[in-house]
Design goal:
118 residues, mainly beta, seven-stranded mixed sheet, four-stranded antiparallel sheet, 11 strands
């Protein structure tokens, strides 16, 4: 399975973006999904996820501003980002599939850059 992320870009403070991640196979209906991000010089951090059972969870830093979702018919997952801040600047990665021993799900997208302007 391959994941293809897109939708990043430059955004003014308070602006919105929607990231998409398309899968080459029908995995979103069977497994949980997640979004992560990584800023320069920092470790990759978890942003949001939907468990296989359907429960959504968000990092405190994005709670109330970001929404994770998935569309089975299109094999696509999304991250709707509102009220963006400069500190949201990062490369965003989608993650899906069965959970591996390292705690991450098996499949990763290639990352899409989100840059919050000052």
């Amino acid at each position: 399975v391959q994941l293809q992320a897109c939708g990043g870009g430059f955004v003014q403070p308070g602006g919105s973006l929607r990231l998409s991640c398309a899968a080459s196979g029908s995995i979103f209906s069977r497994y949980g999904i997640g979004w992560y991000r990584q800023s320069p010089g920092k470790q990759r951090e978890w942003v949001a996820s939907i468990a296989a059972g359907g429960a959504s969870n968000y990092a405190d830093s994005v709670e109330g501003r970001f929404t994770i979702s998935r569309e089975y018919a299109k094999n696509t997952m999304y991250l709707q980002m509102e009220s963006l801040k400069p500190e949201d600047t990062a490369v965003y990665y989608c993650n899906a599939g069965p959970v591996s021993r390292n705690g991450y799900r098996t499949y990763w997208g290639q990352g899409t850059q989100v840059t919050g302007l000052q």
